[in-house]
């Protein structure tokens, strides 16, 4: 096995070397070694990709669709994306100039950060939030400005955004909105977004809207998007990983104004050349004919949410009101203190239930843990039994 020359170690990009690894994934990897652990940690559906989607991709392979796709994506997929966004949000994007296929939303976030940020520029990130945002922004040379939303029921308010822009976030280039939220499951109303849009416009900013969980909203809530209000300023990021149980397919998309998309498509071509052919064809099938797939999945998740929520509340957890995605962000009962990392480790080691420490999601997450209910109903019920035992005996 080759060992790096000592003289070269100091020549590796120091910015990348000094970035911490994903704490969420590191924690999940560590507790995965515990025999019999029930992991309610990673946000990955336990469901399988629907058969008609798989068959569309198989047929594409059989038909020898095995050459480079266009750098922005295959026409069939981009047309399907536009049709889907039009039907779900009432917005329109030109598939030829305003859409781009990506390797999941993660790549989309990298593209957005690289396209928007010059070195040293700031971007507002409401927290708690998926921790990968911070590393992506820093790799692009930007500075993430965390805004703790815990005092406002985990939603960014116009007043808080304006206050931040007048102080530590002065001169920020953009703001990230994750809706529905990971880790809290909170959902922005139409009125919330309209008020935020006014501040974004007043301060002449971009909005980066991560809507990967848009199809997974429960009760009488409905998904709205900044693209419906300020499309000229909004970069929409989404994909099929969560709603269609396609995490391993790695397929997403970016939508935005053509002038900005020129840069984003250019970055995409440098990063990946193009997204895999058959994956795009399978994704097109999902968007065109898969409405019943995510409706059925949503019903399962809603049932699991009810079971987990009731079980946690009986054990003294206070919850951020979960309205979408498939997470519960739960405040640790007072008797266990507020060290969420120690608590999550203890819960995993003593009763073999995995929950992600809230502090891994940034400011405002301290004293909380995130439970994912993208797991079987059987696992969730057993996890509640174990949590009850832990609560009663510690």
UniProtKB/TrEMBL annotation:
EC number: 2.6.1.-
Keyword Disulfide bond: no
Residue span, Aminotransferase class I/classII large domain: 37-387
InterPro entries noted in UniProt: Aminotransferase_I/II_large, AspAT/PAT-like, NHTrfase_class1_PyrdxlP-BS, PyrdxlP-dep_Trfase, PyrdxlP-dep_Trfase_major, PyrdxlP-dep_Trfase_small
Gene Ontology biological process terms from the UniProt entry: amino acid metabolic process
Cofactor(s) required, per the database record: pyridoxal 5'-phosphate
Keywords for the protein's UniProt record, in alphabetical order: Aminotransferase, Pyridoxal phosphate, Transferase
One Gene Ontology MF term: pyridoxal phosphate binding
Similarity annotation: Belongs to the class-I pyridoxal-phosphate-dependent aminotransferase family.
Protein name per its UniProtKB record: Aminotransferase
Species of provenance: Lactobacillus helsingborgensis
